[in-house]
Structure formats: structure tokens, C-alpha cells
Amino acid sequence: MASSSPSSMSPPMIPMELHSLNREKLFNSLRDHLTSCARPLQGFVLLQGGEEQTRHCTDHLELFRQESYFAYLFGVEEPGFYGSIDIASGKSMLFIPRLPADYAVWMGKIQPPSHFQEKYKVTQVLYTDEIKDVLLDQYHATGAPLLFLLHGLNTDSNKYSKPAEFQGIEKFQTDLNTLHPILTECRVIKSNLELALIQYANDISSEAHVEVMRKTKVGMKEYQLESMFLHHTYMYGGCRHCSYTCICATGDNSAVLHYGHAAAPNDKTLQEGDMSLLDMGAEYHFYGSDITCSFPVNGRFTRDQSLLYTAVLDAHDAVISDMRPGVS
């Protein structure tokens, strides 16, 4: 970055080894579980990636973001993929959509399977219309192959993850119970490569929060604070996605937990004496940050604001000082 840049950071390289390690972690965990249950070490993990969505009935494509479990295992940015891991061998396969010729006119070059094999460091890449035949051919035990599909409850949203579906799935046995808890547990503890991306997402988001604080003034709109944050994390940090919808709340709006949605769109004018509560976090290669900070919009705390702010800060610091392995 040039010395005149308001950022001291630049986007780090993304090591695809990160996702190879994630697949290996799942492979070992799943095999350990099957062994402990005296079940055969056969079958395939099969995940379906996210699909592109249009805006209602129009041809406007919303900006795609990969489904998180699929992103964790394969790191794939594109829509319409499937991914598989062979429980017997650890072999990883991606299945890519077979695109029509006019895709090249509207969307760009149609890449061959070898491109994705090199990009995502998997054992093999084939087409989604080959899933049935390829998996049947690769299965070397007797009977119908078993597919471990992702199905489980997200307790934040109360929604279920979507098991993979494809033409010919009736030729397979399916297990909807085993994969989700094991894969979810794999995601809990992060590798050093994952931690580095999370650290970066936090660092660029922290830098953006400070930039917003510097430029905030009475009379501005809340959405201008959001805009400054989004600009900084994308312009200097390469973060096209946020971890969640930005909350730029001032005054009474700060009491609304998920302020900033379409019905409350960060549009209040900042008033003299208001406190702001900014809850914004950038995402980098599927790894997110989540940062909330409060400050007076005019730069000066009232006595009551200072009292509350200091009490919360002291509690915050006390919790961090006591955090260590083994502490509940």
C-alpha cells in the first residue's frame, strides 16, 4: 500500500491447504466415529454447495456467497457445485455444473475441470450430471453405497441445513444423522491457517471502525457511517461481503437489537448528545469478524454516558483477563 493510504493492510493470500486440512479433520473424525460404532469405513460424504438466486422473478442475480459448510470443506467460490469425500480412501472430488456455450458471452470463460482441480487442490473434478455414475463406480464394497448427507438444525436460525439432492440418488443408501454433529464439531476449533484469516478480518474491520470514528460528526446520517465502513473494508481489505447486515444505531435506535434491516435502514440523522452503537464486521474468504463499539457522536461523553461506558469497559476487560483454557 502507498504511504498515503488510510490502511496499513493488504489482503493476504488464501492457502487452499486450509481446506485440505479441514477435509482431513472431518475424514479422521468420521472414521473414528464409525470405528467406535463398529460400522464399516465405506461410503461417501456428499455436500451440495449453494445455488445462485435471482431477485424474485427477474434476471437480476444476487451476489452469491457460498454455503458455509461447503465453504469450510472445499473453499469453492462458485455456485452450483457438489463435493464428496470417499470414506474408504480420503479421496476428494468436486462436481461442477456443465455450463452452456452462451455462458461465455454473459459471464466469462468456461473453465475446464483441470482448472478447478488446480484451484481447489482436490483429487478429481467431474461434472454434476456424472455424480451417480462416478460414485457407483468408485464404490468397491457390496450393496448400495452409503451417502453421509448434511442435515441438522441451526439453533440460531431454527432452520435445517439442506441435504444434497441429485438425479439418481435413489440408487444409494442415505444417512441424515451422522455427518452434521461431527462436521459442526470440526468447525468449532480453528486451525492456525483459519485463525490467520479470522485475525485479518478482525484487523481490517477494527481499522475501518477507527476510520468511521474519526469521520463521524453531528448532522451525518447513520447510513453514511455504514458506507464508510463498507468502503474501507472493501477498498483496502478486499472484503466484498460483510458477516451480517451492518447495525449503525444512534440515540434510541441503539436499543433495537437488529437495527439496520430494510424496515429500519440506518437512516436517522446524528444528533448532538447521541451515543452511537456500531455493530459491523467484514468477512474475508468465508471467515468473519463481529465487532461492536460505542462512542458519542460529538466526541464528548456526558457524565452519565461516561459512567455506563466505563462500567461496561471494566466488565469487558475483566472477562478477557480471566479467559484461558479450562475456564467456564
Walkthrough of the structure:
The protein has 328 residues and is an alpha+beta fold. 35% of the residues lie in helices and 16% in strands. It contains nine helices and 14 strands. Strands 4-3-2-1-5-8 form a six-stranded mixed β-sheet, sandwiched between helices. The protein has a three-stranded antiparallel β-sheet with strand order 9-12-13. It has a three-stranded antiparallel β-sheet with strand order 10-11-14, covered by helices on one side. Helix 1 packs across helix 2, helix 1 crosses helix 6 and helix 7 packs across helix 8. The longest helix has 24 residues. The protein is elongated and about 75 Å long. The two termini are 42 Å apart.
Short description, anyone?
The chain has 328 residues and is of the alpha+beta class. It contains 9 helices and 14 strands. The chain is elongated.
